[in-house]
User: Fold this.
Amino acid sequence: MSTHGEEAGWTRDEMARRLALDIPNGSYVNLGIGIPELVARFVPEGRTLIYHTENGLLGMGPSPAPDAGDPELINAGKRQVTALPGAAYFHHADSFAMIRGGHIDLCVLGAMQVACNGDLANWSTGEPDAIPAVGGAMDLVAGVKSVYVITQHCTKTGEPKLVERCTYPLTGRGVINRVYTELAVIDVTPEGFRLVELAPGVEFEYVKERTAAPLLRR
Amino acid sequence: MSTHGEEAGWTRDEMARRLALDIPNGSYVNLGIGIPELVARFVPEGRTLIYHTENGLLGMGPSPAPDAGDPELINAGKRQVTALPGAAYFHHADSFAMIRGGHIDLCVLGAMQVACNGDLANWSTGEPDAIPAVGGAMDLVAGVKSVYVITQHCTKTGEPKLVERCTYPLTGRGVINRVYTELAVIDVTPEGFRLVELAPGVEFEYVKERTAAPLLRR
Amino acid sequence: MIDKRVQDPTRAVADIHDGATVMIGGFGEAGSPIELIHALIDHGARGLTVISNNTGSGEVGLAALLKAQRVAKVVCSFPRTANSTVFPELYRQGKVELELVPQGTLAERIRAGGAGVPAFYTPAAVGTPLAEGKESRLFDGKEYLLERWLRADFALIKGRRADRFGNVVYNKTARNFGPIMAMAAGVTIVQVNTVVEPGGIDPESVVTPGIFVDRVVEVATPLHESELVAAGATYP
Amino acid sequence: MIDKRVQDPTRAVADIHDGATVMIGGFGEAGSPIELIHALIDHGARGLTVISNNTGSGEVGLAALLKAQRVAKVVCSFPRTANSTVFPELYRQGKVELELVPQGTLAERIRAGGAGVPAFYTPAAVGTPLAEGKESRLFDGKEYLLERWLRADFALIKGRRADRFGNVVYNKTARNFGPIMAMAAGVTIVQVNTVVEPGGIDPESVVTPGIFVDRVVEVATPLHESELVAAGATYP
Assistant:
């Protein structure tokens, strides 16, 4: 691991493990599709989280064994899952009552851009020929108690994802509490981005250079 | 039965029987406390009605056999009832979604006053020391498809209950479709009260004299 | 390990503070969490705002809480029942405030509180004295009233069975306000006849998912309000 | 005698008129009433407004209805899925209109339609492009958007079991939009694997009470959309 090469900082698994450390026992958690899903694999021993999937299940478990699945038992990413003992099924209005009503403790999402005022853009590039599709992201960020982003620090072309103001269409305004990247854990505070922790071997200046908004030290 | 004595017209049971004749097979019906409850006894052979009680039961049946009741299986009048095969229990928000959403076909209520514009007063005399209590009456009249009143034509002191304008506090504005009394069946139309049917031996003028608003002939 | 069980009603209500807003389940005696209410009387919190469909009967349960003058305000649809004398007396003496709400509006305001909907429109009560002071608005030519959500610090409700995650099923028409109050309170306390292990309730039949429940207390053989009232019982 | 059974999907959808608004249940393939949708394609109604969370995959079910150009407008939250090519193509060609609605707002608007609530406020989408043209308002210092109810002429949904009164239970996460769409449509048509006699469903476990259901069709072994798509099937 190097502070200057392409491979600086945490792997995806390590990012997910680092995030999982911050989730208290007994939390009700909604994990977005993609990197966020990895978080479930790294919950520390002795803690139980209860997973909510917005398509109507609380107590979601891992993927089923081969040929043991039910095409009508799926997660929000439309992949087959299982239901753990103590699970409950409910309809969509009840599911989003949980979200909008502030009953979910944490949701973890991917991001295209996070601004230092907590704005999130993660649903559309705003390109004119894109098929707009928003799903439940706007409801999640508006209703869940804490919203964490887990994402690569920059895009594949090296553009910072942590920015002064989002240029892509917003998912929500002032909704993000914390960001986990391969380089660092960063809080969104009333003063803007503030470093919480650097990945091993990563230096503050290195993160700062790749962040398109002021980054406060701890 | 006399057209001029105190006992003119239908008995309470006959009023209920007459009303029951007008309810189509398969209707979802909410019956208020008191005379309205009698209606269930007189449903014509071959028709099935499904009774809704706003405290969370569809498919309500008659009172239980002695000592067979459950104090947690009651109707809106807080009396023990039964649940018929095909019944369903639900919570209060769902129950009033049925009411407010226009899913109940008919509700039958008692009345203090019904005005010729369809206004109903049936919850309060407006006296300053009365304990105000409204229950579900305002929701029922606002949401149910048809609202029938079943009542004595006049109060115990001989005051007409069918009036030009209600003087008691309203339960709802322009909500009553039809009134069944011991003297007649009367529709509330855009032109006001209109006679549908006289009780046997009752004359039109007799009803008209006891109605404090214009009464149109059939 | 998630375990929402609490040993007894006393411990379950121990942090209800003076001035708290408390939703109390039940329609008449069906679903009334009488043991939790009695524990609340013993606990002694005062100046409560109680949101409940009725005001109790006799001098037990909710009526006893009122009688003990712990309640500053009642939000309810029908504060008058057979055998209900405590509330009317206090109300006439000006010792308790009343906010009268149509039953369906009460239910929907509570559900809205739980669902994060701060306000909604309803046709109920338009043109009546209960519309006074309320905003109204036309939609598609019909008039509706604007109603605000109701939320509470605590909810006390009664179920039939729960697991230690807080999933609850109810008994018949005792369900009534339980599921929506569970959604609308900061801390939801449920008394149930039986606590089972997770998996002991079919996930297809759960009525209140555990996410809405904070504390579960087993009361194996709850008192029946009507029997107590018939026997002339009082509490404490 | 109350009997809401209809012999087959063809008869169940026979009165869906051109220009009708049709809610179609399902989240992806879970809960998608594929036999009812295929019957609707055969039936031929055009110019439909479809309210559904997604827009189907492959060229069967909902995607096939779109492909057959029977749909003038789609109201949905996520018109893009794996194996979803039909909608994107029609949309880019300007052959179908899209009203994009956040998923929770979509669910709540449908529930509001069923519950007789013409409008409500939600925090979702505040400050985003989906708030454009919408009224907003502060409650307790926080901004919310005003949203209108959604109602439909017909709802097509899929359950697991029903009785002839129309009481329905669902299968796992196939429940999703079924219960609320059943509430919000003038005519609700449910396909189920099994029809049972009244009493065959525990009244404590009924999810959709029969009052919300008009027609019940038994489809004992419904097709699975994902299997059809994997096999490259098309409809008709």
